[in-house]
Amino acid sequence: MAKHHPDLIFCRKQPGIAIGRLCEKHDGICVICDSYVRPSALVRICDECNYGSFQGRCVVCGGPGISDAYYCTECVVTEKDRDGCPKIVNLGSSKTDLFYERKKASVLQTVLALYFADKVDSLVWVQEKVALVFGFSKNFSVVNISR
Questions:
Q1: Per-residue confidence in pLDDT tens, the chain, 147 aa
Q2: Residue 26: is it exposed, middle or buried by C-beta count within 10 angstroms (0-12/13-18/19+)?
């Protein structure tokens, strides 16, 4: 996951005694290089990444952990397992963008549903809400909206 998404950031603090976990979706991968072959060394994470509600969570996505995380043999030989805590601390821009796009689509769907259900009489109100959602200026025009 982290190898293919350069915007994801690792924690990289000094690992403690806590063992990293993986969720069902990421079960069996190396947390550094995303390979599924020859797991060899157990992943250790720092105490901050294993504190409170983060305890037992997936080191890649933060979901509920079901199995222990391992480094592959290649990452152990190249000593990438010595770089610090491998927990990913940010969501990444693609997940953040997806959240806001879904929010924008749901607001637009609600506005149009109200308009077509005759709950709103004014097309100007719809134009203002669409302008607010998409960042248009308020003087744009909506063409061919008919009930």
A1: 566 667 788 899 999 999 999 999 999 999 998 899 999 999 999 999 999 888 999 999 889 999 999 999 999 999 999 999 999 888 666 666 777 777 777 777 777 777 777 766 666 777 777 777 766 655 555 554 554
A2: buried
The dihedrals phi and psi of 27, each to the nearest 5 degrees, come to: -60, 125
Q: Where are the alpha helices (DSSP H) in the chain?
A: 73-77, 93-116, 123-134
**Spatial contact of 34 and 67, defined as CB atoms under 8 Å apart:** no
Number of helices (H), then strands (E), belonging to the chain: the values are 3, 6
DSSP 54: G
Place of tokens 């060899």: 40
Q: Are 13 and 85 in contact (CB under 8 A)?
A: yes
Q: Tell whether pTM > 0.90.
A: no
